[in-house]
Amino acid sequence: MLVGRITPGRWALKDVSVAYRKFYLLQRPISHRESSMPAFEIDTNVSEDKITPQITMELTELLAEMLSLDVKFLSVIFRPNPRMVWAGTAEPCAVCRLTAINNIDEEHNRGYTEKIFKFMHDKFGVPGDRMYSIFVTPGASNVGYTGRLFSDMS
Questions:
Q1: Around 6, how many Cα atoms within 13 Å sit in the side-chain half-sphere?
Q2: Which of 123, 131, 144, 153 is deepest in the core (most CB within 10 A)?
Q3: What would the mean pLDDT of 128-144 be, rounded to a whole number?
Q4: Any bridge partners for residue 25, and if so which?
């Protein structure tokens, strides 16, 4: 495999072995875009048969657009739970958590909330008064990836 690297004034190409590529990928700094590490988790009493691979991919693409990331950096986890209740009833409800190192703040969260609530209502019929969206930013020193902390990769 040929890998390009910018040197002062030109590109330098070199052949790279598989072992070197693995080492390179583990040692290279993680870009700002990668370092968001978003994970989106949904606990819901919506019937599991409504949570199709297509719906999950639509949600993944929505999150990627919202966070300005490639889908390869996102994890989406649905946890259907038929025993979940809200205000004493088993009508459709959900609790969603977006965990990311970057872009979790009041300004961004307003936009995320609007889009997440719309998606959950349109796809699963969860009304806005039967759902929470929770935003968490653990900090780069509290998240590991590829055997290292994100704080050690930048």
A1: 2
A2: 131
A3: 94
A4: none
